[in-house]
Amino acid sequence: MPDNPFAINGDRNLLEEWLVSKRNKGTRREYAKELKKFFLSVCNQEPTATLVIQFLEMDRHSATTVVLRYKAELMDLELKEASVNRSIAAIKSLVNYAYKVGKCDWTLADIKSEKVKPYRDTTGIAPDAFKKMLAVPDRDTLKGKRDYALLRLLWANALRREEVSQCNIEDLDLESRVLSILGKGRGTQKENVDLQPKTCQAIQDWLLCRRELDIKQPLFISLRPHYGHRLTGDAIRKIVVAMALDAGISKTISPHKIRHSSVTAALNVTGGDVRSVQKLSRHADLNTLMIYDDNRAKAQGKITALLEDLV
Predict the structure, then answer these.
(1) What is the greatest pairwise CA distance in the chain?
(2) Is the pLDDT of residue 170 over 50?
(3) Which helix (H) or strand (E) element contains residue 178?
(4) Residue 302 pLDDT more than 90?
(5) How far are the Cα atoms of 33, 49, 67, 112, 277 from residue 108, in angstroms, in the given order?
(6) For 179, phi and psi rounded to 5 degrees?
(7) CA distances to 40, 150, 177, 193 from 174, in Å
(8) pTM for the whole thing?
């Protein structure tokens, strides 16, 4: 019998094994953070092997009650439905993993997710406003070349920040103008996105100035205080926020807002061709893209105007 009764493989405990089972590093970070918040709330301690075992050894009804009370606390804080669901999903995922490996004889399947409201503001900013952001980076400097290439890539391909963060130099084929990315919900299967000349030129300028010979290195890196570290999704967000402020844009801008902007602009220039724009946005559900199109076209306002004119 090992000293650590929670051990499964070597010196790793169940909590660690569960986190390792998550392919996406971002998911691991978020789930670890949510579990920490849960145990701090219900036990006033950070999760340990002993605490997790005690939780898993509870009977199903008691455990469900604890989690439901925690969920109620989150809702009392008026968190968004998606935030509440993420917290509960982390706990359910841990329990499901323990159930599969025989460390728990119940699940939390009876606890349902909150209904998430669809996107409300999908407009982002207009192309003219984005041009002001493109004018911010000093393209005579290494930082300026990096930031300009980031903006070009985010806009023209409507990429998510984590998709950009995870790219290595080897994922880029400038000759074929293709970038291989790990798309959201695609597991470890990479997909190719086509690049256009302005984006390719911006990335090439950045790489030539950077002079990195190892193609296994990240496509985008930090420059200070630790040169060479992969730009995280949050670092990319901070760069975008800073450039938006420097451009004098009052609206809060993030990489995802740029994605909203790109998708909306694409719908505008294609006259609402959602099938074609879906190739750009890579939304699995066309209904999500229809929300963008409805917001762009102001469908509700137009129908309201027609009704008002009837009486």
Answers:
(1) 81
(2) yes
(3) strand 178-181
(4) no
(5) 19, 20, 9, 9, 38
(6) -125, 130
(7) 49, 15, 5, 12
(8) 0.67
Residue 8 has pLDDT above 60, yes or no: no
Quickly name the fold that domain 127-302 has.
hpI Integrase; Chain A (1.10.443)
Cis (ω within 30 of 0) for the bond into 225?
yes
Q: Do residues 26 and 32 touch, judged by C-beta distance below 8 A?
A: no
Distance CA 189, CA 22 (A): 15
Higher per-residue confidence, 119 vs 209: 209
Phi and psi torsions of 309, nearest 5°:
-75, -10
Is the Cβ–Cβ distance between 71 and 88 less than 8 Å? yes
User: Any idea what DSSP says for residue 231?
Assistant: P
Q: What is the pLDDT of residue 185?
A: 60
CA–CA gap between residue 115 and residue 124 (Å, rounded)? 24
Q: What is the mean pLDDT of residues 185-193?
A: 77
Q: Tell me: the pLDDT tens digits for 92-118? A: 999 999 999 998 999 998 888 887 665
- Cα gap 112→135, rounded to integer Å: 47
Q: Where are the domains of the chain?
A: 7-100, 127-302
Residue with structure tokens 């406003």?
A: 129
The answer to whether 281 touches 265, Cβ cutoff 8 Å, is: no
Containing 194, the helix (H) or strand (E) segment is strand 191-194
- State how far the alpha carbon of 97 is from the alpha carbons of 19, 26, 34, in Å: 10, 18, 16
